[in-house]
Design brief:
By secondary structure, this protein is an alpha/beta fold. It has 5 helices and 6 strands; from the N terminus they run βαββαβαββαα.
Length: 150
């Protein structure tokens, strides 16, 4: 069965993901270091990890399997999920792919260096309705693709 893992800290599409997962009857894990309310839905497991930079990432990467889906903005976590033959999707609807993850990691490192040296001071553009809509469309397509992988 396909399972969904949400890197829940600061994820803007938790509620939307839970609604789509419920429609498909999929087990979903909300993984966080705290600050989120547990869901009463028996198909949703809220996992609180110890605080630490990669605690939620480690929990997800250790458990995610082939054809599972991870919702995350974290590029290194997405890379770890892809290594396990899972799928990874950004909250804006962008799908991480095996072909593009190397470039995404390199770009992440470059941007981090530019921010640290003060050459770039702004962050990403704000999350908007178009991002949410694109995410919902892509999540549906990703679930269908995951089901075909089984």
């Amino acid at each position: 069965m396909v399972e969904i893992y949400i890197d829940a800290d600061a994820c803007p599409v938790k509620d939307q993901t839970l609604r789509v997962a419920a429609r498909h009857g999929l087990k979903t894990y909300l993984v966080s270091d705290g600050g989120i309310r547990p869901s009463p839905d028996p198909m949703v497991e809220t996992v609180f990890v110890t605080q630490g930079a990669d605690a939620a990432d480690d929990w997800i990467a250790d458990r995610i399997g082939k054809a599972d889906i991870c919702v995350t903005n974290d590029i290194p976590l997405a890379a770890r999920c892809l290594e396990r033959e899972a799928m990874a999707l950004k909250p804006n609807g962008e799908l991480f792919t095996a072909d593009g993850i190397g470039m995404a990691l390199a770009n992440r490192d470059l941007m981090q260096t530019l921010r640290e040296t003060g050459q770039i001071t702004g962050g990403p553009r704000p999350f908007n309705k178009t991002d949410r809509s694109r995410f919902l469309d892509r999540l549906e397509a990703t679930i269908q693709a995951a089901k075909r992988r089984l």
